[in-house]
Design a protein that fits this description.
This protein is about 40% helix and about 10% strand. By secondary structure, the protein is α/β, with parallel strands linked by helices. It has one domain: Metal-dependent hydrolases (TIM Barrel). The strands form two sheets. The protein has a six-stranded parallel β-sheet with strand order 4-5-6-7-8-9. The chain has a three-stranded parallel β-sheet with strand order 1-2-3. β2, α3 and β3 form a beta-alpha-beta unit. The radius of gyration is 18 Å and the shape is globular.
């Protein structure tokens, strides 16, 4: 009997993503086209046996998305994120606390509006259509002319600690990330820290990644950085970063949801198997897609 392609694929894959978590997924509705809305994405994740996902938007808190998707798709845990870009108030304690009141899980530093994002050579502002033709003032984590964190940022870190949330570096530079996490660790050794897609940013050398991991941070290694229709880096670069820093300091994320990409859950399975073919063991992949993300999310 002729086999369907899906059956052939299922026989050949090495890594099973059942029970996995993805800490970084984009979804619709958004100000740009996405693969699907949160309910579409969650339903595919359930079909793939995933345990939890975190929805991330650059310019809106995803608290309402997560709350309503959890009601519509109860067989998976959906979490939300607040990114401190201008439309969300920037690095603004009051705005962050509104999301805290709605059950947010991740507080993320500026992404598209960050100083580092705007200063990338030959690139300027990534995805310039997000500016809508307006001048955008880059957001710094520091008081003007200093390397001291703003008062609001200190309050935000304290809220992250108080409410057992996760502090994400967003699109900060390695140096900014290190200084931010250093300040957070001074306030609490138990603070939860994570770095977004370091394999997609040349500034995050192996030396920087190891130095930041020593602070207790998790590095979210991204499938999107290897996506040929997005960043297009070779998957071996991601595998080499994992080997350099150690899988105990990493998770695998898709950074998925782009309309030119497969559903994030499919992307997770593809990426996990890519890493396996690039020399990362199934045990280490399980650590990165199941154990580490579940722990930082507080899942039992």
């Amino acid at each position: 009997m002729e086999k369907k392609w899906t059956n052939i694929y299922l026989e050949k894959k090495n890594v099973d993503i059942t029970g996995s978590c993805d800490l970084h997924i984009h979804s619709g509705p958004d100000c740009v086209e996405r693969w699907g809305d949160t309910i579409d994405i969650a339903r595919v994740a359930v079909e793939m046996g995933m345990r939890a996902i975190v929805f991330k938007d650059h310019f809106r808190p995803t608290t309402h998305k997560a709350i309503l998707t959890n009601r519509a798709v109860p067989d998976i845990d959906c979490f939300s994120l607040h990114a401190c870009n201008h439309p969300q108030g920037g690095i603004n304690y009051r705005c962050v606390m509104m999301s805290v009141g709605e059950g947010v899980k991740v507080i993320q530093m500026p992404t598209m509006d960050s100083l580092h994002q705007h200063s990338k050579p030959k690139q300027g502002h990534l995805f310039t259509h997000f500016k809508f033709g307006q001048k955008v003032e880059p957001i710094s984590i520091y008081n003007p002319g200093t390397k001291q964190l703003t008062d609001d940022l200190h309050k935000i870190i304290e809220a992250v600690i108080k409410y057992d949330l996760i502090l994400s570096n967003g699109h900060l530079s390695p140096e900014e990330t290190f200084n931010l996490f250093k300040a957070a660790k001074k306030k609490s050794k138990k603070v939860k820290l994570m770095v977004e897609h370091p394999n997609g940013n040349a500034a995050f050398t192996h030396d920087w990644v190891k130095k930041i991991a020593a602070q207790g941070a998790l590095h979210n290694i991204s499938y999107n950085a290897c996506n040929p229709l997005f960043a297009g880096k070779h998957p071996r670069e991601a595998a080499e970063m994992i080997k350099a820093v150690g899988p105990q300091h990493c998770t695998l994320i898709t950074d998925g949801g782009n309309h030119t990409s497969p559903p994030p859950a499919i992307g997770m399975e593809v990426f996990a198997n890519m890493m396996n073919f690039c020399g990362i063991s199934k045990k280490d992949i399980d650590t990165m897609i199941k154990k580490n993300p579940a722990k930082i999310l507080g899942l039992k």
